[in-house]
Write a structure and sequence with these properties.
480 residues; Aspartate Aminotransferase, domain 2; 5-stranded mixed sheet; 3-stranded antiparallel sheet; Tyrosine phenol-lyase
Length: 480
Amino acid sequence: MAAIAEPYRIKMVEPITLTTRAQREEAIRAAGYNTFLLRSDDVYIDLLTDSGTSAMSDRQWSALMLGDEAYAGARSFDHLVAAVRDNYGFPYVCPTHQGRGAEHLISKILIRPGQHVPGNMYFTTTRLHQELAGGTFHDVIIDEAHDPGSLHPFKGNIDIGKLEALVAKVGAENIAYVNVAVTVNMAGGQPVSMENLRAVREVCDRHGIILWSDATRLAENAWFIKHREPGYADRSSASIAREMLSHVDGLTMSGKKDCLVNIGGFLAMRDERILLKARELVVVYEGMPTYGGLAGRDLDAMAVGLHEALDDDYLTHRIGQVAYLGERLSAAGVPIVRPTGGHAVFLDAAAFLDHLSQDELPAQSLAAEIYLDSGVRAMERGIVSAGRDDQGRNRHPKLELVRLTIPRRVYTNSHMDVVADSVIRVHERRRDIGGLEFVYESPTLRFFTSRFAPIAPDVDGSMAGLERGGRDTAALAALA
């Protein structure tokens, strides 16, 4: 495959600095071996998340200067509504400060205590909001999604049999809504096929169930349909995205991903009754219905970014860069989730550190070890992210992953080479890497703020060889 150059020119740069091994040892100890708690200044290449970390375009920066900061009725809101209508086909929009604000609102609107919410694999904040509203999440994704080595082209698909079985078991009236994510983050950024969306729509229509979408990475999913699903090769990603959304009743969007902005999100829907309820709640939790916790300039930048994210040249480079990193790692024998997704390469930490049990937190340990090696910051997506069930027991997800998340329009493939070289080095000495244990555990969304310490015997040259840290009980009490 020929090299694909960035479909843009660089106008502005931000310096980054590589720290020494000794500096990184000190930093990871201070962060309690949690990459979320590292200071940005201590990070060389930051692959923690693609949320709010994109580089904005010249048109987006121009839009910032034109933002209407009126408290009510700002024209910036009108610009966002028009962009959503033109690209996504929804007439009604309610902005929120970010995607989880939208998740909060729709959970309170659609879920009655005791109801059930089937979806194609959980996402951390989505499931939490569903549970806080009194709902129970059910994973109805196809089995291939839980197999890192499966080459199924649409591992994000909902298993229609599982969905029908759940409806038969609990009754359609007890299904709050079906939530389909495009793409599926926790499965490795895996897409959903158009055929599957149509099938899920048919089930929902037959049973009178609302079909909602977490459309945070919609553009990437549309690109995969274009390149993997028969009948779409000659279609633009923009037109495919519009067709995808024609099958759903509404969506939550984190503008920090596919809208290419640093903050923002929204709900979009066809039913004016849901809009009215959202407007009632957004005033309580976010802000006026026309700004939803955002400045007018944020709304304008999001409107421009929504258009740009559906450009095929941009998407070809974006997804090609993810594939480039994945191919380098796979060629070196590093176990990854295959096929590579749209926003990240996911390391199979369970296979990478197969000498550790899942309760020894292999993904958390691997993310910390990669940082120690090179200053590259990744994040855990395994048992720590899965949290505890309502009985206080650790959930044990089938996938134990480390996510190397590539910000949009930020890094070049030279940066990807640095990342690949580091992960390969760590893989070569993987037997020296020990596990971690909690020394402070946050009661909710624990992957953000929990702290850890090594539990393995000291081994020179790896994280296990560092002095145990983070056990200052006074500091832990203050965190709690």
